[in-house]
Each structure stands twice: as C-alpha cells, then as structure tokens.
Design brief:
This protein has about 375 residues and is of the alpha/beta class. About 35% of the residues lie in helices and about 20% in strands. It has an 8-stranded mixed sheet, sandwiched between helices. The longest helix is centred in the last third of the chain and has 16 residues, at about 265-280. The structure holds adenosine-5'-triphosphate (ATP). Adenosine-5'-triphosphate binds near residues 137, 160, 239, 334 and 337.
C-alpha cells in the first residue's frame, strides 16, 4: 500500500534548517507527490550557496521518508526560482525591488499541515451546487451584498475556475495589483472585498490546470490575497464535486457550506452528491437554498413553477438539514446580475429574502 501524501509531508515538516526555521515554516517544498512507492518533491532555494547549506536537510528528509512503510524511492531536486531573488542578510530570499508586479496564479501547492484559518478572517463559508447553472454565483453575490448591508465585513472569493462570473455580477474589472509580487490586493464593490480567479487570467483564456495546479491556485487565492479583517469570506465554488472543492477543504478551515439547488429532480440528485462530498470532507453543511422556485408573470400575476416547487425543502427535511429559504425566478435578478448591481442592493421580495438569509447566518455566529 502506498504512503499517504499528507502523512509523508508531515513527516518532514519539522526538520530544522540552519537558520532555525522548520522546513514547513520556511515554505521551500514544492510539487510534493507520492506516486506508488516513490516520493518526489522540489526544494526551492535561493541560490547555490543556500543549496549547499541545505544538503543536511535534504539528507534528513530522504532518511525520514525512506524509513516510512511503503516508500521505496525518494527523489528530491533542489532548484532556484526564476527571477534571481537576492539573499537578505539573514539568508531569506526576497524579490528584487522595482520588479514589475508579476504574481502568477496557478502553481504547484506548497507544504501545509492540514486546513488553515486565513489570518483576519473569522468565518469561511463555501457556496456549492451539484449542477451547473442553478444560480450559485447569483446567490453568492447577493448574499455577500446582503451581509454587507447588515453591517458585516464580507469577502467574496470567486473560485469558479471554469466559469468565473463574479467580476460581471459584482461589477468589478481590471487586474488586481500585486505591488510586492507576493500578495494580491483584492477589489472592492458594494461594500464587499472581491477577488476572482477570472481577474488574474487574460480575457478568453481557458484554465487547463489539473489537480496540483488547481490546489496551488486555491492556496494562493486564500493565503496571498490581502483579505484584511473580515467577519466572513464567502467562496463561490464551481459546480460539482471536483479538485477545487477538495483543495479548498484541504487548505482552508471551512466553517460551513451552503448548497444551492433548483427544485428540479436532476438538480436535487446532484445536490445530494455535493452534500455527500462536503460530509466526506468534514465541512458542515449549513443548509439548502432553493433558487428559481417560483415565477410570477409581471403582466398577469400568474404564479408558475417552472422547475417544480418545494423540492429543496423536502430534500432538506429528508436529509435532516436546515432549509435556508427560497428565491424566485425573475427577470430583475438576472438583469441585476448582468449589470454588476446584485438585486439584494435594492428593495422588494427578493432583497428581503436575501436579507433574511444573511440575518440567519449572523444570528448563528457564522457571519
Ligand atoms: N433567481 C433567478 N432569477 C433569474 N435569473 C437567475 C436567477 N438565478 C440565477 N439566474 C441567472 O441564471 C444564470 C446562471 O446563474 P449563475 O451563474 O448564478 O449560476 P451558477 O450555478 O453559478 O452557474 P455555473 O454553473 O456557471 O457556476 C445567470 O444568467 C443568472 O443571472
């Protein structure tokens, strides 16, 4: 049986460097992988001098990993990063000053011992769905705005790598600055601190990352964005049960997940899978939201249920989860989303529904 990647990573995390920091603290391990009986990783060092000084660390890592059951081969490569970082007097690499801000999103993840809180962020809530197009991003942007209106300090991370829609829905554009090449300055709209992976990509650029690159990108969005002091960070996930969800729950201490679904059977079936995934990842499911539940004809007032009605409430009952509320299907919500001014900024039935949802999270101490 092959060794578990996290266990192997933990095994070397407390090796002490010549400067007194641990390997984990120094954040030098890149592309750590377990492939059958082989463990591989890169030790990223500043220059040849540092590489020589770290030879005993490399040897100790090799010794510890080789001693683990299931490990036959250990391959460690030392590399210096591109961009010629200079050594500070105490030996830590720094970026050369005056260099253009060039933080690239998408890289291999760095070593990390389990899910971490984000400094300054009190609560992290993921918004997920099983099926695409059910309104998860719409609910996230409106909930963010409703929470901000309730006086909370709110962040919104658009982690929908395959279809980032928050820049449009929140009305933000432009590439966020990274003055030090290490951290990203998020944008601000409607009282919400916003960051989207879409803002870091060139327009029309498709993301073709696989697991490790996605994990690295998620880690960067969580830890290298200057989120500041927040009561809650909402994370808009891609639909489904894939690498981004897995990365998020492995990298960040998620306080809870909200599942958005339409009442349609097929959407509910996928929602069940999403709930099962969050259960397996040990992220508490806070409840279900029914989106697109009723449609009231603006001309005659007739109420129709295009995707069915009440299915999500029934599903929540069956699963013993809270039903957090229902949101109508209406033109105003779509137009507001397209114009970058979420409908929850205004007044009316839908804005009230979002205000209630926001208040519920506040009352539960989650936002
Ligand atoms: N309650 C609603 N009433 C009217 N239109 C809505 C409603 N909810 C969402 N929409 C519209 O449906 C479309 C899909 O919504 P959205 O992008 O929020 O879904 P999603 O689940 O995040 O999709 P994706 O799978 O792309 O992540 C958008 O055009 C949005 O404006």
């Amino acid at each position: 049986m092959s060794v578990n990647r996290e266990t192997a990573l933990r095994e070397i995390s407390d090796i002490v460097l010549p400067d007194g920091r641990t390997l984990e603290k120094a954040d030098l391990v890149r592309a750590f992988s377990v492939d059958g009986d082989t463990v591989r990783f890169v030790l990223e060092v500043a220059d040849a001098g540092v590489a020589r000084a770290l030879a005993p660390v490399e040897a100790e890592a090799k010794r510890r990993l080789s001693a683990m059951p299931g490990v036959e081969k250990v391959q460690i490569v030392m590399t210096a990063p591109a961009g010629k970082p200079q050594a500070q007097p105490h030996g830590h690499p720094v970026r050369s000053s005056g260099a253009a801000p060039s933080l690239q999103i998408g890289r291999h993840p760095t070593a990390q011992a389990g899910p971490q809180p984000i400094p300054g962020v009190k609560s992290i809530i993921a918004i997920g769905s099983g099926k695409g197009g059910v309104g998860k991003s719409t609910v996230t942007s409106n909930l963010a705005v409703a929470l901000a209106r309730a006086g909370r300090r709110v962040g919104l991370l658009d982690a929908d790598i395959y279809g980032p829609s928050q820049p449009r829905m929140m009305g933000v554009s432009g590439r966020p600055a990274s003055p030090d090449g290490q951290h990203i300055e998020p944008l601000h709209a409607h009282g919400v601190t916003v960051m989207s992976i879409g803002l870091m990509l060139k327009e029309g650029e498709a993301v073709v990352w696989r697991g490790p690159m996605l994990m690295g990108a998620m880690q960067q969005m969580l830890q290298q964005v200057n989120w500041g002091e927040l009561d809650v960070l909402l994370i808009d996930l891609p639909p489904g049960t894939g690498d981004v969800q897995l990365s998020l729950c492995q990298k960040a201490a998620v306080d809870g997940a909200i599942i958005v679904s339409t009442p349609q059977d097929v959407a509910l079936l996928d929602a069940r899978r999403a709930i099962d995934m969050f259960n397996k990842l040990k992220a508490p499911v806070l409840g279900l939201v029914e989106n697109m539940s009723t449609y009231v004809c603006p001309n005659c007032g007739h109420e129709a249920h295009l995707f069915g009605h009440g299915g999500v409430a029934a599903e929540a009952r069956d699963l013993g989860l809270p039903f957090l509320g229902e949101l109508p299907l209406e033109l105003e919500t779509r137009l507001a989303g397209d114009s970058g001014r979420p409908v929850a900024l205004g007044s009316g039935v839908t804005a009230d529904a979002y205000a209630r949802l926001a208040q519920r999270l506040v009352d539960q101490g989650l936002a």
